[in-house]
Write a structure and sequence with these properties.
The chain is mainly alpha-helical and 83 residues long. The chain has helices spanning 2-8, 12-25, 30-49, 53-66, 71-81.
């Protein structure tokens, strides 16, 4: 819940840090993995908007490692790569 509140407040880095701590304690927490993938995708979209393609792709790649079914991350990754 804290990570969701942080993300909604625009504090994406704090949300990522919080979710990473949750996963450090509970590495198999599927909900935390999905939420972290969502926040990473959002952060990647913002980086892409700012023209930081390589950094954006890294965010999308990590999101997809956490949640291979994340179509938003996949779509944005392809856009960042110009496909």
């Amino acid at each position: 819940n804290l990570a969701t509140a942080l993300a909604k407040a625009g504090k994406l880095d704090d949300a990522v840090d919080n979710l990473r701590r949750v996963l450090a304690d509970s590495p198999e927490d599927a909900a935390a993995k999905r939420r972290l993938a969502e926040v990473l995708t959002l952060r990647g979209m913002l980086l892409l908007r700012d023209g930081k393609r390589d950094e954006a792709v890294a965010q999308f790649d990590e999101a997809l490692r956490l949640d291979p079914s994340d179509e938003e991350a996949r779509k944005n990754r392809e856009q960042a790569l110009g496909h």
